[in-house]
Design brief:
It is found in: Cell envelope. Pfam families: Dyp_perox_C, Dyp_perox_N. One of its GO terms (molecular function) is heme binding. It is a single chain. The chain is of the alpha+beta class and about 400 residues long. It has one domain. The chain is built from 12 helices and 9 strands. Strands 1, 2, 3, 4, 5, 6, 7, 8 and 9 form a 9-stranded antiparallel β-sheet that branches. A hairpin with a 5-residue loop joins strand 7 and strand 8. The radius of gyration is 21 Å and the shape is globular.
Amino acid sequence: MELSRRRLLGTVGAAGAAGLVAGGAGGAIGAAATHDSAPRALTTIGSTKVAFRPARDRHQAGITTPLQASGHLVAFDLAPGSGRKEAAALLRRWSRTAEELMAGRRPDADTGVALDAGPSSLTVTFGLGHSFFGRTGLTKRRPVQLDPLPDFSADALDPKRSNGDLWIQIGADDALVAFHALRALQKDAGTAARLRWQMNGFNRTPGATAHPMTSRNLMGQVDGTNNPKPSDPDFDERIFVGRDADQEWMRGGSYAVVRRIRMLLDEWEKRSLHEQEKVIGRRKANGAPLTGGSETTPMRLDANGADGLPVIPANAHARVAAPESNQGAAMLRRPFSFHDGFREDGAPDAGLLFVCWQADPLRAFTQIQRKLDRGDALSAFLRHEASGLYAVPPAAEAGDYVGRPLLEG
Protein backbone atom coordinates (compact mmCIF):
# COMPACT_ATOMS: atom_id res chain seq x y z
CA MET A 1 0.00 0.00 0.00
CA GLU A 2 1.18 3.51 -0.74
CA LEU A 3 2.19 5.68 2.22
CA SER A 4 -0.44 8.43 2.18
CA ARG A 5 0.39 11.95 3.28
CA ARG A 6 -2.28 11.76 5.99
CA ARG A 7 -0.71 8.62 7.44
CA LEU A 8 2.76 10.11 7.12
CA LEU A 9 1.85 13.28 9.00
CA GLY A 10 0.08 11.37 11.74
CA THR A 11 2.89 8.89 12.21
CA VAL A 12 5.65 11.48 12.19
CA GLY A 13 3.78 13.64 14.64
CA ALA A 14 3.03 10.79 17.01
CA ALA A 15 6.50 9.32 16.93
CA GLY A 16 8.45 12.57 17.04
CA ALA A 17 9.94 11.64 13.62
CA ALA A 18 13.49 11.88 14.88
CA GLY A 19 13.73 9.57 17.85
CA LEU A 20 16.02 6.54 17.88
CA VAL A 21 16.08 3.34 19.82
CA ALA A 22 18.22 0.35 20.59
CA GLY A 23 16.07 -2.38 19.08
CA GLY A 24 16.44 -6.07 19.71
CA ALA A 25 15.26 -9.29 18.09
CA GLY A 26 15.41 -11.44 21.20
CA GLY A 27 11.63 -11.70 21.58
CA ALA A 28 11.09 -12.69 17.95
CA ILE A 29 13.84 -15.29 18.02
CA GLY A 30 12.52 -16.78 21.24
CA ALA A 31 9.00 -17.08 19.85
CA ALA A 32 10.18 -18.81 16.67
CA ALA A 33 12.30 -21.25 18.67
CA THR A 34 9.53 -22.35 21.04
CA HIS A 35 6.53 -22.66 18.70
CA ASP A 36 5.97 -25.36 16.08
CA SER A 37 3.77 -23.19 13.87
CA ALA A 38 5.34 -21.34 10.95
CA PRO A 39 6.00 -17.62 11.47
CA ARG A 40 3.26 -15.33 10.20
CA ALA A 41 4.00 -12.85 7.42
CA LEU A 42 4.40 -9.25 8.57
CA THR A 43 2.35 -8.03 5.63
CA THR A 44 1.89 -4.48 6.84
CA ILE A 45 5.64 -4.03 7.19
CA GLY A 46 6.74 -5.67 3.97
CA SER A 47 4.08 -4.26 1.66
CA THR A 48 4.36 -0.58 2.56
CA LYS A 49 5.75 1.62 -0.23
CA VAL A 50 7.15 5.15 -0.20
CA ALA A 51 6.99 6.97 -3.55
CA PHE A 52 10.29 7.94 -5.18
CA ARG A 53 8.45 10.72 -7.04
CA PRO A 54 5.92 12.08 -4.51
CA ALA A 55 2.63 13.25 -5.96
CA ARG A 56 1.88 16.05 -3.48
CA ASP A 57 5.20 17.71 -2.71
CA ARG A 58 8.66 18.08 -4.22
CA HIS A 59 10.69 16.64 -1.34
CA GLN A 60 12.81 13.52 -1.56
CA ALA A 61 11.69 10.53 0.48
CA GLY A 62 13.56 9.83 3.71
CA ILE A 63 13.15 13.30 5.22
CA THR A 64 9.64 13.26 6.68
CA THR A 65 9.16 9.53 6.16
CA PRO A 66 8.52 7.78 9.51
CA LEU A 67 11.67 6.27 11.01
CA GLN A 68 12.67 2.89 9.60
CA ALA A 69 14.16 -0.03 11.51
CA SER A 70 17.35 -0.35 9.46
CA GLY A 71 19.52 2.19 7.68
CA HIS A 72 22.79 2.85 5.89
CA LEU A 73 24.61 6.12 5.34
CA VAL A 74 27.22 6.11 2.58
CA ALA A 75 29.40 8.71 0.86
CA PHE A 76 31.23 8.54 -2.46
CA ASP A 77 33.88 10.66 -4.15
CA LEU A 78 33.90 11.07 -7.90
CA ALA A 79 36.79 9.10 -9.39
CA PRO A 80 39.76 10.96 -10.93
CA GLY A 81 38.77 12.02 -14.41
CA SER A 82 35.03 11.98 -13.62
CA GLY A 83 33.28 15.31 -14.00
CA ARG A 84 29.89 16.80 -14.71
CA LYS A 85 29.00 14.35 -17.49
CA GLU A 86 29.90 11.29 -15.42
CA ALA A 87 28.13 12.70 -12.34
CA ALA A 88 24.93 13.21 -14.36
CA ALA A 89 25.06 9.68 -15.73
CA LEU A 90 25.64 8.29 -12.22
CA LEU A 91 22.74 10.18 -10.66
CA ARG A 92 20.57 9.04 -13.55
CA ARG A 93 21.48 5.40 -12.83
CA TRP A 94 21.03 5.82 -9.11
CA SER A 95 17.64 7.49 -9.52
CA ARG A 96 16.42 4.72 -11.82
CA THR A 97 17.58 2.01 -9.42
CA ALA A 98 16.13 3.77 -6.37
CA GLU A 99 12.75 4.15 -8.06
CA GLU A 100 12.66 0.46 -8.98
CA LEU A 101 13.68 -0.74 -5.52
CA MET A 102 11.32 1.59 -3.66
CA ALA A 103 8.47 0.23 -5.79
CA GLY A 104 9.41 -3.33 -4.83
CA ARG A 105 10.81 -4.19 -8.25
CA ARG A 106 14.23 -5.71 -8.89
CA PRO A 107 16.84 -4.07 -11.15
CA ASP A 108 18.74 -5.91 -13.86
CA ALA A 109 21.50 -8.25 -12.66
CA ASP A 110 19.88 -8.39 -9.23
CA THR A 111 21.76 -10.11 -6.40
CA GLY A 112 18.61 -11.79 -5.03
CA VAL A 113 19.32 -10.62 -1.48
CA ALA A 114 15.76 -9.28 -1.02
CA LEU A 115 14.06 -11.54 -3.54
CA ASP A 116 11.26 -12.63 -1.18
CA ALA A 117 10.56 -9.28 0.47
CA GLY A 118 8.29 -6.37 -0.32
CA PRO A 119 9.55 -2.79 -0.42
CA SER A 120 9.33 -2.49 3.39
CA SER A 121 9.11 1.33 3.36
CA LEU A 122 12.44 1.57 1.56
CA THR A 123 13.66 5.10 0.96
CA VAL A 124 16.77 6.30 -0.86
CA THR A 125 17.82 9.94 -0.44
CA PHE A 126 20.60 11.64 -2.42
CA GLY A 127 22.75 14.60 -1.38
CA LEU A 128 25.66 16.62 -2.77
CA GLY A 129 28.68 17.69 -0.72
CA HIS A 130 30.67 20.92 -0.90
CA SER A 131 33.45 19.27 -2.95
CA PHE A 132 30.99 17.98 -5.57
CA PHE A 133 30.68 21.42 -7.13
CA GLY A 134 34.40 21.87 -7.67
CA ARG A 135 34.71 18.40 -9.19
CA THR A 136 31.92 19.14 -11.68
CA GLY A 137 32.84 22.75 -12.54
CA LEU A 138 29.72 24.11 -10.84
CA THR A 139 31.23 26.22 -8.05
CA LYS A 140 29.19 29.26 -9.13
CA ARG A 141 26.02 27.28 -8.43
CA ARG A 142 27.09 26.06 -5.00
CA PRO A 143 24.73 27.45 -2.31
CA VAL A 144 26.24 29.51 0.50
CA GLN A 145 24.33 27.25 2.90
CA LEU A 146 26.80 24.52 1.93
CA ASP A 147 29.80 26.41 3.31
CA PRO A 148 31.79 24.10 5.64
CA LEU A 149 30.55 23.81 9.20
CA PRO A 150 32.65 25.64 11.81
CA ASP A 151 34.93 23.78 14.18
CA PHE A 152 33.42 22.92 17.56
CA SER A 153 35.50 22.38 20.69
CA ALA A 154 34.06 18.89 21.24
CA ASP A 155 34.95 17.70 17.73
CA ALA A 156 37.42 14.85 17.25
CA LEU A 157 36.58 14.27 13.60
CA ASP A 158 38.06 11.57 11.40
CA PRO A 159 38.42 13.09 7.90
CA LYS A 160 38.28 9.64 6.31
CA ARG A 161 34.74 9.20 7.69
CA SER A 162 33.57 12.75 6.96
CA ASN A 163 32.27 14.79 4.02
CA GLY A 164 32.31 13.34 0.46
CA ASP A 165 31.19 14.46 -3.00
CA LEU A 166 27.96 12.42 -2.95
CA TRP A 167 25.90 11.14 -0.02
CA ILE A 168 23.13 8.55 0.14
CA GLN A 169 20.77 7.78 3.02
CA ILE A 170 19.02 4.40 2.84
CA GLY A 171 16.24 3.35 5.20
CA ALA A 172 13.90 0.34 5.31
CA ASP A 173 11.88 -1.68 7.81
CA ASP A 174 13.73 -4.85 6.78
CA ALA A 175 17.51 -5.16 7.12
CA LEU A 176 17.91 -7.31 3.99
CA VAL A 177 15.93 -4.81 1.91
CA ALA A 178 18.15 -1.99 3.16
CA PHE A 179 21.36 -3.93 2.45
CA HIS A 180 20.07 -4.92 -0.97
CA ALA A 181 19.60 -1.25 -1.87
CA LEU A 182 23.06 -0.40 -0.55
CA ARG A 183 24.66 -3.12 -2.64
CA ALA A 184 22.74 -2.20 -5.80
CA LEU A 185 23.71 1.47 -5.55
CA GLN A 186 27.34 0.63 -4.83
CA LYS A 187 27.43 -1.52 -7.97
CA ASP A 188 25.80 1.26 -9.97
CA ALA A 189 28.65 3.59 -9.04
CA GLY A 190 30.92 1.56 -11.33
CA THR A 191 34.08 3.45 -12.25
CA ALA A 192 32.49 6.90 -11.88
CA ALA A 193 32.75 7.13 -8.09
CA ARG A 194 34.62 5.45 -5.26
CA LEU A 195 33.34 4.64 -1.79
CA ARG A 196 34.57 7.14 0.81
CA TRP A 197 32.82 5.88 3.95
CA GLN A 198 29.79 3.85 5.00
CA MET A 199 27.90 3.51 8.32
CA ASN A 200 25.13 1.19 9.48
CA GLY A 201 22.28 2.12 11.80
CA PHE A 202 19.06 0.83 13.34
CA ASN A 203 15.91 1.91 15.11
CA ARG A 204 13.02 0.15 16.77
CA THR A 205 10.92 -1.96 14.38
CA PRO A 206 7.49 -0.42 13.70
CA GLY A 207 4.87 -2.19 15.78
CA ALA A 208 7.34 -3.28 18.48
CA THR A 209 5.51 -1.18 21.09
CA ALA A 210 1.90 -1.53 22.20
CA HIS A 211 1.05 1.93 20.85
CA PRO A 212 2.86 4.65 18.86
CA MET A 213 5.34 6.47 21.04
CA THR A 214 8.48 8.55 20.88
CA SER A 215 11.51 6.31 20.69
CA ARG A 216 14.42 5.93 23.09
CA ASN A 217 18.10 6.28 22.35
CA LEU A 218 20.94 4.00 23.50
CA MET A 219 21.13 5.95 26.77
CA GLY A 220 17.55 4.85 27.47
CA GLN A 221 16.16 8.37 27.16
CA VAL A 222 12.97 9.26 25.30
CA ASP A 223 14.41 11.10 22.30
CA GLY A 224 12.65 13.37 19.80
CA THR A 225 9.97 15.07 21.89
CA ASN A 226 10.71 18.61 20.73
CA ASN A 227 11.10 17.73 17.04
CA PRO A 228 9.25 20.03 14.62
CA LYS A 229 6.10 18.34 13.30
CA PRO A 230 4.71 18.53 9.75
CA SER A 231 1.49 19.88 11.27
CA ASP A 232 3.35 22.97 12.56
CA PRO A 233 2.43 26.05 10.47
CA ASP A 234 6.11 26.93 9.93
CA PHE A 235 7.37 23.37 9.35
CA ASP A 236 8.09 23.76 5.63
CA GLU A 237 9.77 27.11 6.21
CA ARG A 238 12.12 25.61 8.79
CA ILE A 239 12.96 22.38 6.96
CA PHE A 240 12.72 23.02 3.20
CA VAL A 241 14.31 25.58 0.91
CA GLY A 242 11.76 28.18 -0.17
CA ARG A 243 10.86 29.56 -3.57
CA ASP A 244 12.94 32.71 -2.99
CA ALA A 245 16.23 30.79 -2.77
CA ASP A 246 19.08 32.14 -4.91
CA GLN A 247 19.81 28.70 -6.34
CA GLU A 248 16.62 27.72 -8.14
CA TRP A 249 17.66 24.06 -8.40
CA MET A 250 17.48 23.74 -4.58
CA ARG A 251 13.93 25.06 -4.17
CA GLY A 252 11.96 22.37 -2.37
CA GLY A 253 15.15 20.68 -1.21
CA SER A 254 16.77 20.60 2.22
CA TYR A 255 20.17 20.46 3.89
CA ALA A 256 21.32 17.41 5.85
CA VAL A 257 23.91 17.52 8.62
CA VAL A 258 25.36 14.09 9.45
CA ARG A 259 27.40 13.37 12.60
CA ARG A 260 28.71 10.12 14.03
CA ILE A 261 28.37 10.63 17.78
CA ARG A 262 29.78 7.93 20.03
CA MET A 263 28.09 7.65 23.42
CA LEU A 264 30.24 6.90 26.46
CA LEU A 265 27.73 4.36 27.71
CA ASP A 266 29.93 2.87 30.44
CA GLU A 267 30.30 6.30 32.05
CA TRP A 268 26.64 7.16 31.54
CA GLU A 269 25.38 3.96 33.09
CA LYS A 270 27.42 4.61 36.26
CA ARG A 271 25.31 7.67 36.95
CA SER A 272 22.22 7.37 39.13
CA LEU A 273 18.77 7.86 37.66
CA HIS A 274 18.58 11.24 39.41
CA GLU A 275 21.88 12.36 37.89
CA GLN A 276 20.89 11.22 34.41
CA GLU A 277 17.61 13.11 34.60
CA LYS A 278 19.40 16.28 35.69
CA VAL A 279 21.77 15.99 32.71
CA ILE A 280 18.86 15.64 30.27
CA GLY A 281 16.24 17.80 32.02
CA ARG A 282 13.50 15.16 31.57
CA ARG A 283 12.21 12.09 33.38
CA LYS A 284 13.64 8.88 32.03
CA ALA A 285 10.42 6.92 32.56
CA ASN A 286 8.17 8.98 30.30
CA GLY A 287 10.14 11.92 28.88
CA ALA A 288 8.23 14.50 30.91
CA PRO A 289 10.13 17.69 31.83
CA LEU A 290 11.45 17.86 35.38
CA THR A 291 8.94 20.66 35.97
CA GLY A 292 6.11 18.11 35.71
CA GLY A 293 3.36 16.92 33.43
CA SER A 294 3.64 14.48 30.55
CA GLU A 295 6.11 14.17 27.70
CA THR A 296 4.37 16.85 25.67
CA THR A 297 3.98 19.32 28.54
CA PRO A 298 6.01 22.48 27.79
CA MET A 299 9.12 22.92 29.92
CA ARG A 300 8.86 25.65 32.55
CA LEU A 301 12.32 27.08 32.12
CA ASP A 302 11.66 29.78 34.73
CA ALA A 303 10.66 27.35 37.52
CA ASN A 304 12.91 27.23 40.60
CA GLY A 305 13.03 24.60 43.33
CA ALA A 306 12.99 25.04 47.10
CA ASP A 307 16.75 25.63 46.97
CA GLY A 308 16.25 28.59 44.65
CA LEU A 309 17.94 26.84 41.73
CA PRO A 310 16.27 26.10 38.38
CA VAL A 311 14.34 22.81 38.45
CA ILE A 312 15.69 22.16 34.97
CA PRO A 313 19.41 22.89 35.43
CA ALA A 314 21.00 25.67 33.39
CA ASN A 315 23.18 23.16 31.53
CA ALA A 316 20.53 20.45 31.03
CA HIS A 317 20.49 19.21 27.46
CA ALA A 318 16.76 19.80 26.97
CA ARG A 319 17.09 23.42 28.13
CA VAL A 320 20.22 24.25 26.09
CA ALA A 321 18.85 22.69 22.89
CA ALA A 322 15.31 24.10 23.20
CA PRO A 323 14.12 26.56 20.53
CA GLU A 324 13.37 29.01 23.36
CA SER A 325 17.08 29.01 24.18
CA ASN A 326 18.16 29.44 20.56
CA GLN A 327 16.07 32.29 19.18
CA GLY A 328 13.54 29.82 17.84
CA ALA A 329 16.07 27.77 15.87
CA ALA A 330 14.95 24.20 15.22
CA MET A 331 15.85 21.27 12.98
CA LEU A 332 14.22 17.95 12.12
CA ARG A 333 16.28 15.23 13.77
CA ARG A 334 15.99 11.86 12.04
CA PRO A 335 18.91 9.72 13.22
CA PHE A 336 19.80 6.05 13.53
CA SER A 337 21.50 4.30 16.44
CA PHE A 338 24.67 2.34 15.76
CA HIS A 339 26.75 -0.37 17.40
CA ASP A 340 30.03 -1.27 15.71
CA GLY A 341 31.38 -3.76 18.21
CA PHE A 342 33.70 -2.91 21.09
CA ARG A 343 36.80 -0.79 21.50
CA GLU A 344 40.15 -2.04 22.79
CA ASP A 345 39.20 -1.05 26.34
CA GLY A 346 35.99 -3.09 26.10
CA ALA A 347 33.71 -0.08 25.86
CA PRO A 348 30.93 -0.33 23.27
CA ASP A 349 31.58 1.52 20.03
CA ALA A 350 27.97 2.66 19.92
CA GLY A 351 25.90 5.79 19.74
CA LEU A 352 24.06 7.95 17.29
CA LEU A 353 24.27 8.45 13.55
CA PHE A 354 22.83 11.92 13.88
CA VAL A 355 21.00 13.20 10.78
CA CYS A 356 19.14 16.50 10.90
CA TRP A 357 17.29 18.45 8.23
CA GLN A 358 16.84 22.19 7.83
CA ALA A 359 16.39 24.95 5.26
CA ASP A 360 19.56 26.71 6.45
CA PRO A 361 22.25 24.91 8.53
CA LEU A 362 23.76 28.19 9.75
CA ARG A 363 20.47 29.25 11.32
CA ALA A 364 19.61 25.79 12.67
CA PHE A 365 22.28 23.15 13.34
CA THR A 366 25.23 25.54 13.66
CA GLN A 367 23.38 27.93 15.97
CA ILE A 368 22.17 25.14 18.24
CA GLN A 369 25.47 23.22 18.23
CA ARG A 370 27.40 26.34 19.20
CA LYS A 371 25.13 26.71 22.22
CA LEU A 372 25.55 23.04 23.12
CA ASP A 373 29.31 23.36 22.67
CA ARG A 374 29.46 26.09 25.28
CA GLY A 375 27.62 24.37 28.12
CA ASP A 376 25.66 21.17 27.61
CA ALA A 377 25.87 18.67 30.48
CA LEU A 378 25.38 15.81 28.04
CA SER A 379 28.56 16.70 26.11
CA ALA A 380 30.69 14.98 28.75
CA PHE A 381 29.19 11.66 27.63
CA LEU A 382 29.53 12.18 23.85
CA ARG A 383 32.31 12.12 21.27
CA HIS A 384 31.74 13.68 17.83
CA GLU A 385 33.83 11.53 15.50
CA ALA A 386 32.66 12.25 11.94
CA SER A 387 30.73 15.00 10.17
CA GLY A 388 29.22 15.94 6.83
CA LEU A 389 26.97 18.57 5.29
CA TYR A 390 24.99 17.92 2.10
CA ALA A 391 22.63 19.78 -0.19
CA VAL A 392 19.66 17.50 -0.87
CA PRO A 393 17.84 18.61 -4.04
CA PRO A 394 14.08 18.20 -4.44
CA ALA A 395 12.66 14.93 -5.71
CA ALA A 396 13.00 14.13 -9.38
CA GLU A 397 10.04 14.96 -11.59
CA ALA A 398 8.62 12.46 -14.08
CA GLY A 399 11.30 11.35 -16.53
CA ASP A 400 14.05 13.18 -14.62
CA TYR A 401 16.75 12.17 -12.17
CA VAL A 402 17.70 13.80 -8.87
CA GLY A 403 19.93 16.81 -9.53
CA ARG A 404 19.19 17.19 -13.25
CA PRO A 405 18.25 20.92 -13.03
CA LEU A 406 21.70 21.56 -11.53
CA LEU A 407 23.74 19.35 -13.85
CA GLU A 408 21.91 20.09 -17.07
CA GLY A 409 20.30 23.45 -16.34
